[in-house]
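Here is the promised in-class demo. Please do not try to memorize the tokens; focus on the logic of going from shape to residues.
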């Protein structure tokens, strides 16, 4: 059964009396790897009228938030009528001003439900990944939903540029870029450098074990780097996914089974602690929408090597080594180049602090409620200190 704390049921009513912004954030899975959940939790600290719901019962990763903070609709599949009914009840009782959608299936049902309540809330959707890699059903959902959305947030310029011609036409001037936000202070506090006496060079990677993340070629690159340097290079891969068994076989075939560690899924805090244990970070993705894991590694001061693709050039700036993601030799050469590089702090990642993302989302919501174009928020300065290059 879904968790339906009475404090959630009463929250929008009390906030309406206080004339505060009423927001409903629907995430697909409320676990430690949910980027929209991290945003929503941070947003609620500034906007107490924010209510957060998770569509599915559970995900692949552990939960590291207070479970009372999220209402779980407990869908057991994409067509769970009972969960959709719970969503309808939630929305009818809370009457949100803004409903913020994220992933395809949950976004579709949430938008459909929102159009049946009165008053109809303003619909906003975030696009989290490169559309050239989306499935047919994700593309179909976009074509259905875009005419009903007041704003379409893209987490990078590269994501926005990846829209198909018809998606760009449907989105029009309602599409804008707001980079993902991260709790940089938390990353840095947990990722304190771990001093070691051994001579092992530990490289890390964080990502779901799927084709997009390209871990098989990274493992082959590790074998090449070990052969070239003669050093004890090891690779730790954090994450779960359907390719786990295939990647274990790849490591065995490449002769590096003893040099590759698969940790499985970890809480966000545990990932940050891993950053303190590694000497470098590698992200070999074929495509990305943003890549929070990369920014977390950079915030921790790790030297990084990344795929030479549009998104990672935008997100990492000049602070990363780059390689052809389809060439294991190039990945191996980048790993060799990482050996011996020192940790360093960089102001570049400050633009991705969660405070900026929250401020821009609030400005977007307020602009929409005032009847202004969402594009006005693109001209807003970052909060706090100026950040070069933004």
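The designed amino acids, position by position:
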């Amino acid at each position: 059964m879904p968790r339906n704390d009475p404090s959630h049921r009463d929250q929008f009513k009390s906030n309406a009396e206080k004339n505060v912004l009423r927001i409903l954030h629907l995430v697909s899975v409320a676990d430690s790897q949910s980027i929209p959940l991290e945003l929503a939790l941070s947003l609620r600290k500034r906007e107490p009228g924010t209510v957060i719901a998770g569509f599915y019962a559970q995900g692949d990763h552990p939960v590291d938030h207070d479970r009372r903070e999220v209402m779980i609709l407990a869908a057991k599949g994409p067509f769970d009528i009972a969960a959709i009914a719970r969503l309808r009840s939630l929305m009818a009782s809370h009457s949100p001003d803004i409903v913020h959608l994220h992933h395809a299936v949950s976004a579709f049902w949430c938008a459909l439900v929102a159009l049946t309540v009165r008053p109809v809330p303003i619909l906003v959707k975030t696009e989290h990944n490169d559309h050239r890699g989306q499935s047919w059903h994700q593309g179909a959902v976009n074509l259905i939903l875009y005419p009903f959305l007041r704003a379409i947030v893209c987490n990078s310029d590269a994501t926005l540029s990846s829209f198909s011609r018809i998606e760009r036409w449907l989105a029009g001037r309602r599409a804008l870029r707001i980079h993902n936000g991260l709790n940089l202070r938390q990353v840095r506090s947990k990722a304190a450098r771990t001093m070691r006496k051994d001579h092992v060079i530990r490289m890390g990677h964080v990502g779901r074990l799927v084709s997009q993340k390209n871990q098989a070629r990274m493992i082959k690159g590790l074998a090449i780097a070990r052969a070239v340097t003669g050093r004890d290079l090891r690779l730790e891969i954090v994450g779960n996914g359907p390719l786990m068994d295939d990647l274990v076989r790849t490591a065995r075939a490449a002769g590096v089974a003893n040099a590759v560690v698969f940790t499985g899924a970890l809480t966000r805090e545990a990932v940050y602690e891993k950053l303190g244990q590694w000497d470098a970070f590698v992200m070999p993705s074929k495509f990305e929408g943003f890549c929070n894991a990369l920014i977390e590694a950079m915030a921790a001061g790790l030297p990084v090597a990344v795929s030479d693709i549009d998104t990672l050039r935008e997100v990492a700036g000049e602070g990363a080594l780059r390689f052809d993601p389809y060439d294991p030799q190039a990945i191996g050469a980048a790993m060799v180049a990482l050996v011996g590089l020192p940790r360093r702090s960089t102001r570049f990642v400050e633009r991705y602090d969660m405070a900026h993302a929250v401020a821009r989302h609030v400005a977007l919501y307020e602009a929409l409620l005032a009847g202004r174009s969402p594009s006005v928020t693109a001209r807003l300065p970052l909060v706090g200190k100026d950040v070069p290059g933004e």
